[in-house]
Each structure stands twice: as C-alpha cells, then as structure tokens.
Design goal:
4-stranded antiparallel sheet, globular
C-alpha cells in the first residue's frame, strides 16, 4: 500500500491462517473491522482468494464486454433500479456500468451472457461465476466478523445470509477528452449492506475519511475495499457509517473495476440487540428494492441522508 493510505485505513489480513472463529486473531480482527466501520465506513481486506490468473481473466473479459456495440450492452435491462446497463449520461460521461444478477448461480451468469453473446461464451460464464463465488465467500466471512464484533448471535447472521441477494457489477471509466472534467462518478454512498470493490490496478477511486479528507484507494490486485452501505447503517442502529466514495480520473489508462453488492430480499431492520436506552431505534424496517426506487427521487436527492429520509425515525416529530 501507499504510505498515504497505509497509515489511515485499517487492513485486515485474510491470508493469515490463524484467522479462524474462536481465536485471538479472529477476535482482534473483528474489533478492527468494527472500529473501522464505525469511524470511516470501510476497510481493506488483504486477500489472495482470487489468484492472478483469474484476476487477469476477469478484467480482460471486462474490456471485451464494454467493447461490445452500445445497442448490445443496452439490452441488459431490469425492473430493479441500478440492475441494468448504465451509461451515456451527461452527468457522468466517463462512466459505464453493467450488472449481473444472481452471479452465484451459473444460470444467472448465462442469462446475462446470452444477451451480450447470443451464440454463447462459456469462458465468460465460467470465469465470472467462479469469481463471484470467491467474492461472496469473502462477503460471508466479513459479515460474520461484523456480527461477532457486536456480540450478536451467529444464527442471526445465518438468517441474513440466507435472505441476501447479490449483484456483480462491472464498471468502466474512459479517459476524459480535452474539454471534459475528470469526474468519473459523483460522491455517494451505496444502498447495500456491503460493497466489495476490486480494481484493475488503476488509481481513481477515492474514499472519504471521518475527518472529511478524501484519499485514493489502493487498487492493488490483492486489496479488496469493503464499503458499508445504507443497509448496515440501519442494521447497526447508526453505529456503522456509510462510506462516501467517488471516482476521479487522474491516470492515463482506462479504469475498470468490479463490485459485489449484497441486498436483502426481505425487510431490512435494526438488530434488536443494538437497541437500548442509550441507542433508541433510529429506523423503521424497509424493503431494499423499494428503497432503490426512492434513491434517485427528488426528495432523496435533496435530503442530507437518503436512508434517513426514507425510513428514519424522528423522535422530535413524535412529541
């Protein structure tokens, strides 16, 4: 890691063979993750689950995907917001993204692949399905560590994992032309529980620290940036911060990244153990996909915090 981020962003070493439930190493890492999420809303996972051969294959395939004709890419649509193709926007002209629903199943990846390559593309299906499985394994481990960090019974984590839907999203940021600004994507928080971001070793992603400072995220192949989204803010009853992040294009190379998003298919609600006299309930239960539909509305965009505008409890209004 670069010296700028190494001293400010916690890194959890998932390559450590001692990192197993019930060990001191596990307990220490759970504490680090909880502190990092409460302070900044993110941390790094140093992880070698994705070997370099697979890493290189994934990002080579992303180049192929985004080189397809626009009319082909636009065939990926969805009735769920932010689950289809996005691009050609005047507000983010450098940005394109594409989503694969249910990437854990081969059927989900095949359904997407047949839209892009009607004659089929077995290598794409097999590579992306394997890649998604490895990222989902990392997602499961980190969620278990969050629950342990708060002393919440793992049976509640089991329930959450069973009711989680995943979307694997790919991103491309082209180089700005002479008259373009270098904004790849505006500052925002994600709606998910966790977003796991993996990059093609091209700098550009920036995350916001608790003190308001923006820092460049490490794009190294074995560094996975794990961001807390709005759902974990609700689950933790405001203990966990949502990570604000953006993309600023400063390199001389096209930037690609992959993101695994975890969304609830049942009502998302605050964990009961995290509600007490000092921490009264801050949010009503909410439907994740209804919240996605709210996310880009005028009311949401004008609010200071979209999730609070959507399902926050204002005790002042009850008096």
């Amino acid at each position: 890691m670069g010296s700028q981020t190494a001293c400010k962003v916690p890194v959890v070493d998932f390559t450590d063979e001692k990192l197993k439930p019930g060990t001191e190493t596990w307990a220490s890492a759970c504490h680090v993750i909880r502190s990092a999420l409460e302070d900044h809303g993110f941390f790094y996972a140093l992880c070698d689950k994705v070997p370099m051969e697979l890493y290189n294959s994934v990002f080579t395939l992303m180049e192929e995907l985004f080189d397809l004709p626009l009319e082909t890419k636009m065939q990926k649509t969805s009735d769920k917001p932010y689950h289809g193709y996005y691009g050609q926007s005047v507000h983010a002209p450098l940005y394109e993204s594409q989503g694969i629903n249910d990437p854990l199943s081969m059927e989900g990846v095949q359904k997407f692949t047949k839209l892009m390559w009607p004659s089929g593309y077995d290598h794409f299906c097999e590579t992306l399905n394997l890649y998604a499985k490895l990222l989902i394994e990392l997602d499961h481990i980190t969620k278990r560590m969050v629950f342990d960090g708060y002393g919440v019974d793992q049976r509640h984590c089991d329930s959450l994992l069973k009711s989680t839907n995943y979307m694997l999203r790919s991103f491309k940021y082209k180089l700005p032309q002479k008259d373009d600004n270098n904004l790849g994507l505006h500052a925002h928080t994600d709606t998910s529980f966790f977003t796991i971001l993996h990059q093609n070793n091209v700098i550009g992603l920036q995350v916001k620290l608790k003190n308001g400072e923006w820092i460049d995220a490490d794009p190294s192949p074995f560094m996975f940036l794990i961001l807390a989204g709005d759902a974990f803010k609700v689950w933790s009853n405001d203990r966990i911060r949502c990570c604000e992040h953006r993309v600023i294009i400063s390199a001389k190379k096209v930037r690609y990244s992959m993101g695994l998003f975890s969304l609830g298919d049942k009502m998302v609600q605050t964990q009961e153990e995290l509600v007490d006299e000092e921490h009264p309930r801050r949010y009503k239960p909410f439907d994740h996909y209804d919240y996605l539909r709210f996310y880009a509305t005028k009311k949401a965009l004008e609010s200071e915090c979209r999730i609070k505008a959507y399902c926050g409890i204002d005790y002042a209004d009850e008096k």
